[in-house]
């Protein structure tokens, strides 16, 4: 792959998924991590931590329905009553010891807590959820959950959540949440 083509792919990939690491990008382009870092610096693309920090500063409403400790994963973007994004890196605490596969309740908890966090209210509860695990997630993978409010009534919301690892869908959920009004 030529340098020009690689750099074009780099720009496109980071626009599509700002959570990509240099290591993941190096594998995709079949080059060294140092080559990706040089390309990134030449293109003025900051390292992942800076990209995440920039995203968080750019679009972040404050969660009302949960305390920060109650949200599973790190909320990166949040527009109350509209959409949100969270990231959960699968650690040794999240996996079965014998096969290093993530326990499903962590993926569900990430999606559910994001669906609840989106709603602009002090008290939000999950009424029901239709979920589907698409593929196993393993130790070290980064789960990026995207939530979107698709239906809104005065006290009920339907929130669709899709969780991906890179471009692979790993979890889908449709959450019916209830907003308590005073």
List keywords for this structure.
182 residues; alpha+beta; six-stranded antiparallel β-sheet; 6 strands
Summarize the structure.
The protein is an alpha+beta fold. The chain is built from 5 helices and 6 strands.
**Portion of residues in helices?**
25-40%
Q: Count up the helices.
A: 5
Low-pLDDT regions: none
SSE run: HHHHEEHEEEE
Q: How confident is the prediction overall: mean pLDDT?
A: 89
**How large a portion of the residues is in β-strands, by DSSP E?**
25-35%
Q: How large is the radius of gyration? A: 18 Å
What is the CA–CA distance across the termini? 60 Å
Broad shape: globular
Can you give a write-up of this model?
- With 182 residues, this protein is α+β, with helices and mostly antiparallel strands.
- The protein has helices spanning 3-16, 22-29, 33-43, 48-58, 104-118, and strands at 74-79, 83-89, 124-133, 142-152, 156-165, 168-179.
- The protein contains five helices and six strands, in the order H-H-H-H-E-E-H-E-E-E-E.
- A six-stranded antiparallel sheet has the order 1-2-4-5-6-3, with helices on both faces.
- A hairpin with a 3-residue loop joins strand 4 (142-152) and strand 5 (156-165).
- The longest helix has 15 residues, at 104-118.
- It starts with a helix and ends with a strand.
- The relative contact order is 0.14.
